[in-house]
Specification:
single chain, 708 residues, mainly beta, 7-stranded mixed sheet, 5-stranded mixed sheet, globular
Length: 708
């Protein structure tokens, strides 16, 4: 042993002893923790129950009290505040130990945590074991994310592997909790092939695992080797008490083996556990060509506990644009160093204002619970000369006021030529009530003002002046618009002129409570030989009021005609009308529409040629409605065979109206089609059969898929 180091330790020990004697108090060892008791010492698994940790000192605490540090061997499972103080003259103090109700909830295992207590001035640590019994796995079924496939897949909580069955409403059953995270792998044929990761590291770690609400922690995404180009990661949390400062996916630098993200937290009045989902996505080349983006995912926890939170402070204040032309709008964001707490904890007084509200005004905004940034809009007005306005973010705390300022240059507004925007407040009113509209021009009105004419597509529901004049030297004008009572909700479109197309506004005029709505449109029969008539009926959700209800009618094809409207008499719930058809040379699918207010109901009718037989609509088999796919993944469209079909037409598009040009418009002989070239979007698909003479049958139902 080093003799110098030994001498230093002896002298330090003597000094501490002399200090204690001179102060007239016992040596610090006298306040060592004698015992730690947990009541109860067993918590029901998944209950999120609490235990009381009772700390007892060997002797009474001195003047000023004795600080006892508390720890846990598993802070993701059980946590307390970092320290408690035993009051002067007392030997005991207690603290709450909270448990995480969702910790490894699929594990089916019992867990324990060693809770420790120590006085750092006295040395020595005592501990007690808190046992958490096993909880039942969640019983709610998980749906297969893509019913075209079956097999093992990473789904549900991050880091879990499930076995999923294919087919409509395919169910997924729990297979394994992955110790090193769940690894997404390329599918093969119609089989999932995900698996538990065989080697580390775990995809996400948090540090520290216990933070006082209002302070900053860190989450780190981890890779086993250097990230290939095109890798990205995400740390996500649905918690209101802790969240990553970066809440969207970010690029992982090429070659990096980790990516750290700060975690903000909110002040709390009780211990809460925040889950963080870590997803590391890396590209890999497929043997048959193309790229697969495999994800390594897992979940980590942070215990957010009560304590002395740092004083909130502004850390950033910015505008998307610092120069805008008068009359335009810009947006901004002001951020603080922690998350806004729950209302019962206290409000954070953050506001944004303008130094000159006649040139630019900040629209009302507030900091919501669980957020650290407040987004706001700055509306500017027409000005004859350039003007600079200070946009001030102001935070008021007990320690004073902090202000950050961003100058906004509002440039001179040219003379007006047309309206650019039309705002409504509110956007929806009950018939008989009013809404206030604001028309904004693209420049400043001249000395004689600027005349704007107004029209609507439903004068019966909306009381609208024929025109308004924007006063000289301004770029906007307000007008009040009254409405009349309606029997069904009506969407009224209001168009100013001259104006950009974007200047139109839409106001919903609502029916009074109890007003009937359009329930259905039916046609009998659904197939008819051209030249014959069929009967259709429009029905309401309840009896029509006095005066009856007028339902608008239309047809999308000249092969079948309907009257412009049908009246459902007072006290009745339905009315029938005739659908007349003309001779056709091939099967013709007609869509009939009934409209009442903003509600539309559809029915289809197939008009066949003399001697012809309409081909039935195919039944869609897979993918299931709203199935999800990765970009570049093979999507197999499959439907039932139709008797008499010589081929099929498949349509896939980003619009449910299947407007040209289509994303996919494919003619196939078989009743299926596969492609891996779909774009990242929500897509809609449908199919119809074609007979040997080229006559089309009825379209199938429409389903949607999502590619990300």
């Amino acid at each position: 042993m080093n003799p110098i180091a030994t001498t230093q330790k002896i002298l330090m020990a003597i000094g501490l002893l002399v200090l204690g004697v001179c102060a007239g108090v016992p040596a610090v060892h006298a306040q060592a923790v004698a015992s730690l008791q947990l009541v109860p010492s067993v918590i029901a698994g998944g209950s999120g129950g609490t235990s009381t940790a009772l700390v007892t000192l060997a002797t009474a605490a001195p003047a000023g009290g004795a600080v006892v540090q508390l720890g846990s061997s598993n802070l993701e499972l059980a946590a307390s505040v970092p320290q408690i103080t035993v009051a002067a003259g007392q030997t005991q103090a207690s603290a709450v130990v909270a448990t995480n109700a969702l910790y490894r909830r699929y594990g089916g295992l019992a867990f324990s945590a060693s809770i420790s207590a120590s006085n750092p001035m006295a040395g020595g640590t005592v501990s007690a074991t808190l046992n958490v019994t096993a909880q039942a796995r969640p019983s709610q079924p998980l749906l297969n994310p893509d019913t075209t496939f079956s097999g093992p897949v990473c789904t549900g909580d991050p880091g879990l592997l499930f076995d999923c069955a294919g087919g409509v409403n395919g169910q997924c059953t729990f297979r394994q909790e992955c110790t090193l995270g769940c690894q997404g792998r390329p599918t093969q044929g119609t089989s999932y092939r995900d698996q538990c990761r065989a080697s580390g590291p775990y995809p996400i770690v948090t540090s520290p695992k216990r933070i006082v609400g209002g302070t900053i922690g860190q989450a780190t995404l981890q890779l086993a080797s250097g990230a290939p180009a095109g890798s990205f990661g995400l740390v996500a949390s649905a918690s209101l008490v802790a969240a990553a400062q970066t809440r969207t996916q970010v690029t992982i630098p090429t070659g990096a083996t980790s990516l750290a993200m700060p975690l903000n937290s909110a002040a709390v009045n009780r211990i809460q556990f925040a889950a963080f989902e870590g997803i590391v996505t890396t590209p890999q080349a497929l043997s048959g060509g193309g790229t697969f983006f495999g994800s390594h995912q897992g979940r980590a926890w942070v215990a957010v506990v009560p304590g002395v939170a740092p004083t909130p402070r502004l850390v950033s204040h910015r505008l998307d644009e610092t120069t805008v032309r008068g009359g335009f709008v810009t947006f901004g964001t002001a951020c603080i160093n922690q998350l806004a707490p729950a209302p019962e904890i206290g409000a954070i007084n953050l506001s944004v204002s303008s130094s000159n509200s006649t040139v630019a005004r900040v629209l009302p905004a507030s900091l919501t619970q669980g957020g650290e940034c407040m987004s706001f809009a700055v509306e500017t007005f027409a000005v004859s000369a350039n003007a600079t306005v200070n946009i001030n973010a102001r935070l008021v705390t007990a320690l004073g006021t902090q202000t950050l300022t961003v100058p906004l240059l509002v440039t001179a507004t040219p003379g007006a030529t047309q309206a650019t925007t039309f705002f409504l407040d509110p956007l929806s009113v009950e018939g008989g009530q009013s809404s206030v509209g604001t028309i904004v021009l693209d420049g400043m009105a001249p000395a004689v003002g600027f005349l704007v004419t107004l029209t609507s597509d439903n004068p019966a529901a909306l009381i609208l002046p024929a025109s308004v004049t924007v006063p000289a030297g301004t770029d906007r004008v307000n007008l009040t618009m009254g409405t009349r009572p309606v029997s069904a909700d009506v969407l009224v479109t209001i168009q100013p002129a001259p104006a950009f197309v974007t200047a139109l506004a839409q106001l919903t005029v609502r029916a009074g409570v109890g007003a009937p709505t359009l329930a259905a449109l039916s046609v009998t029969p659904v197939n008819v030989t051209g030249g014959n008539a069929v009967t259709a009926a429009a029905s309401l959700s309840s009896a029509a009021p006095a005066g009856g209800v007028v339902v608008g009618l239309s047809s999308n094809s000249s092969a079948a005609s309907v009257p412009a409207s049908v009246t459902i008499a007072a006290g009745q719930t339905a009315a029938a009308f005739a659908v007349n058809t003309v001779a056709v040379t091939g099967n013709t699918l007609v869509t009939l529409s009934a409209n009442l207010g903003s509600m539309t109901r559809l029915a289809t009718l197939t008009v066949t040629p003399v001697g012809g037989v309409a081909l039935a609509a195919p039944a869609l088999q897979s993918p299931a409605n709203d199935a999800r796919f990765n970009l570049g993944q093979l999507v197999n469209f499959d439907w039932s065979d139709v008797a008499g079909a010589a081929s099929y037409t498949l349509q896939v598009d980003e619009s449910s109206t299947f407007a040209a040009p289509l994303t996919v418009g494919q003619s196939v002989v078989a009743s299926q089609y596969g492609t891996s070239g779909l774009p990242a979007a929500t897509l809609y698909w449908r199919v119809r059969a074609i007979d040997s003479a080229g006559n089309p049958g009825a379209w199938s139902a429409v389903r949607q898929v999502r590619v990300r």
